[in-house]
Amino acid sequence: MVSSKEADKTRPPRPKSNLKPGNKKSNDKFKSAPNFAKKSDGGHNKFAGKPVCSGEPEKQDWNKFKQEKKELKLKRKSTRDTYEITKEAKQIYEKLRCRKTENKDQLVEQMFKILNVGDTISKIVKAHDTARVLQCMLKHATPALRVEISDKLLPFVVEMCQSKYAQFCVQRMLKYGAPATKSKLVDSLFGHIVRLAGHSIASGLLDIMYQGGTRQQRTHMRQEFYGDLYRKAKDSSVKTLSDTYKEATNMKASILGSVKANLDHVANKNLVDSSLVHCVMLEYLRACEDEEEKLEETVTAFAALVPHMLSTKEGSEAAVICFYKSTPKNRRAIIKNIKEHLLKIATHEHGHVFLISLLNALDDTKATKKAIYDHLHGDLKQLVGNQYGRRVVQWLVAPGDTTCFHPTFIRVIEEGLAFGKKEKETRRKEIFEQIEAPIAEAIVEDAAFWLSNSHIGLVTADILNHIQGVSYQKAVEALAQVVVQPDWRITADADGAQPSQQKKGHQDVEDIIAEATKQRKKLTKIEESSDDDDDQSEQEQDKPDKEEAENGTVKPKRAKKEPKPKPAKEEPAKPLVKGIEEAGMHIVLKKILKNDGKQQVEEGQSFGEQILKHLTSDGLKAWLSVNRGCFVLLKLVEERPQLLETSRTAIQAEPEVSQLLRSQKTQGAKLLAGKLNIGK
Fold this sequence. Notes:
This protein is an all-alpha fold. Helices cover 59% and strands 1% of the residues. Helix 26 (424-445) packs parallel to helix 28 (469-483) and helix 34 runs parallel beside helix 37. Mean pLDDT is 81; it is low at 17-42, 494-506 and 531-562.
């Protein structure tokens, strides 16, 4: 070991500087620079070393700068071999995109002759400006020319699907192309399905093509997820994943491993909201049912993706399997992930099935109410107003009731009972006891809504058929006050589409384009007239007064008015009819009265008694003048015979009312008069 002192002695001497103390060579680059502030004020000048303006700064000619920049950009573009061609095509495109232009198909032919030179079309399809030119050509071309343009683009479809701008050309081909073109479009993607399914842009297009493809094409698209073996060579005998290892069971592990890897690739990019991916996922989960370890690993990975799996039937089934096979920890994670999407799931065609399956399989009923029903209670009206949301409410109130659900649906849902510990009836009773009072309170708060149309009325009847005691009494009292109003009106059909809104049959592509063009022309006329008015008012505001111009004192311009937002399209008002006359509501009232006869309530608290209590002479006249109104009163008396005398007294107390009943010739009036023994 050498000490530090010895080491210092052995070091070579440092070379001496040639600079003398008073003649030091400075490396400060700012010291000799001209027009710089000198250091003063005792060495504390904060502007030391900064330049000092010797005069007025030179002004930049921005117009010249912009012109030079524009020329440079034009020069750079002109070096491309397609510049002159695309420039000429875009000039025609400006005419083509105008709504008032006629004979657009001729302009498209002219553009195609210009662009159909070598590989020009394939070069310009990915650019942001020329891609719009091709989209317009695909829309307005004749059918024969549209096929020719599509054939030019088909070899580049895989790259186009992944392009930010060319993807819109693919969408135009799918929208306006002939069936043969669409079929070729799907076939051109084979060999790249898994890669496109994991691409943020291409995945959406792939989903559209999968849904619109033939059965064989959909099968071949799924096969590419089964492994590299099926990427280039398709097997028509393989319909599902289980067919791949039916004859060679030793291949099952490797095939399932390939499927898992491909699904993980798509899932890692959060692109599982696709019909194709959902189908493959369902097949994989069914194939793994015998292998508990692999299934548990898969279910854990898919738990966070459940909200994205509920947009299709297959995805919903896969989500149900994931929930059934999950551990309690994973179940809590799934419930947590869907909590913020509950209303959307409950009102979805396939999502509501998953929610009902979840409600039927959970053992912790208190947690079920807290995590699910409490979040839906605030949107109960919106839930009941939707055809799928109603089913969720009906399952909460009347689970497994064959009057509300098809036996096949009940059988599928009850498969989940095998994955719970509690008995079926105990679980359902505990859930209903917790939600009975909140639902009754919701009916009391807005009773008119719960009888606003026949569909919602049927849900109300099902609720009244199961709630009891004080909750029932409060609900029927509020509903009776709505029913007896003389001017009670409801919507004729909440879910039925109006004639103008009904889906049209098959139309030719040319008819669709022509119809869309007519509608756009109408909108253009309205927009132009409103724009002209705005321009005139703006010009008037911009003109200075003569006196101000002469004096040279022009007031600052007022800010231009913001363009008025276009009014949203209002839905046509649904027709209103008298509630007592509507056929569906007539069935609802009879159903409620039938159940009312079985209810054990205090005297004067039944639905029938509440109706007679609040029914005025005007209300009686409105009911007796209608055949269905007479039948409702007849049903009321039949279900509760003790109200016969009360009904007779109410009608005979008013001579006009009793005379009206006797003068009616409808079948309901005759039967009611006979039942009440009110003769002529």
